[in-house]
Amino acid sequence: MAKRTGLAVPLLLALSFGMGAGGQAPFPRLQGPYLGHKPPGMAQQPYAPGIITTDADEGSSGFALKGTVFIFQKFIERRCHTYVTRLKDGTWTPPELIPFWETMDDNGDFVFSSDDKTMLYQVKTEKEGLLLSDIWRLELTATGWGDRAPLPPPVNAPEDNESFASETAEGAVYFFSNRRGGKGRFDLYMCPAKDGGYGDAVNLAALNTEDNEWDPFIAPDGCFLLFCSTKPGGLGGDDIYISFREKDGSWGPPRNLGAEVNSAGSENRPYVTRDGKYFFFTSTRNGSRDTFWVRAEYLDRFRK
């Protein structure tokens, strides 16, 4: 992929975080868990205002390696820039572009798996003249990055788009795709772990509709699934829903997360931190797409 022209990457980073054109202002000294920010209560609030939540649109985000790594995205001139900051000696380092950010600049949605170190992310690849998205896997290390590779079939299909994958502790992978035979344009799918790979993709028919379903986040133990839908009856363009696993293994009726999370705008990219404490999502409720968080106990009110 060709390098961008115009603004240099350091300048883009400076502008993105509200620094001067020369990047003279230092990155704030952030210490402690979650970039040193006071945790929210049962009401959602913007995450790290002025640092993560800014006037720029945000994409995916997530903590890994016991909360010592935070990766997040900002859209600059319609390109997705993916940054990493690490907790070193009690202080968070200034964010830097990840070395392979340009493979994700079309969108690059990602989720950290339940092992707290594997990043599943979207990469656009040209296949027979078509630009299609696949799901890739990368393992983070304490100091850098491991090998990167696409997930094998049947997760990635040769003529379809796949994105926003999350895994259970047992290795089942959940994702969305526009593959043939679905109920809507984009549907939710699951591939079980099988013989060191994956079994056939299963359409989550009980949750899919003739509209769009996307951005599935599965709990590590598989007890609940968060996802987005554009089906009628929501509060905005796409809303976040939750479905809990029934005793017989089926999925219970999806429940809209209500006006505390959803709005007349667009909500997506849901996930729960690996310590189970906080629920993150993005929303356009204030104009630009911002990152919000709320205590994960908020989700419990939607159980039967």
- Please indicate the percent range of residues in DSSP E strands (runs of 2 or more): 35-45%
Proportion in helices: under 10%
Instruction: Please give the CATH architecture of the domain at 112-302.
Output: 6 Propeller
Shape: globular
Element-by-element helix/strand order: HEEEEEEEEEEEEEEEEEEEEEEE
Mean pLDDT: 91
CATH superfamily of the domain at 112-302, please?
TolB, C-terminal domain
**Cα-to-Cα separation, first versus last residue:** 49 Å
CATH class of the domain at 112-302: Mainly Beta
Under CATH, the topology of the domain at 112-302 is which? Neuraminidase
Radius of gyration: 19 Å
User: Helix segment count?
Assistant: 1
What class do helices, strands and sheet pairing give? mainly beta
For the biggest sheet, the summary is: 5 strands, antiparallel
Q: Would you report the number of β strands?
A: 23
Detail the poorly predicted runs. 1-24
How does this structure look, described?
With 304 residues, the protein is mainly β. It has a domain at 112-302: 6 Propeller (Neuraminidase). Helix content is 3%, strand content 42%. It contains 1 helix and 23 strands. It has one helix at residues 9-16, and strands at residues 45-46, 57-64, 69-76, 79-88, 91-92, 96-97, 110-112, 118-127, 130-140, 145-150, 162-167, 173-177, 187-191, 193-194, 197-198, 202-203, 213-218, 224-229, 239-244, 255-256, 267-272, 278-286, 288-295. Strands 2, 3, 4, 5 and 6 form a 5-stranded antiparallel beta sheet that branches. A 4-stranded antiparallel beta sheet has the order 1-23-22-21, with no helix packed on it. Strands 7-8-9-10 form a 4-stranded antiparallel beta sheet, with no helix packed on it. A hairpin with a 5-residue loop joins β17 (213-218) and β18 (224-229). It starts with 8 loop residues before the first helix and ends in a 9-residue tail after the last strand. Residues 1-24 have low confidence and may be disordered.
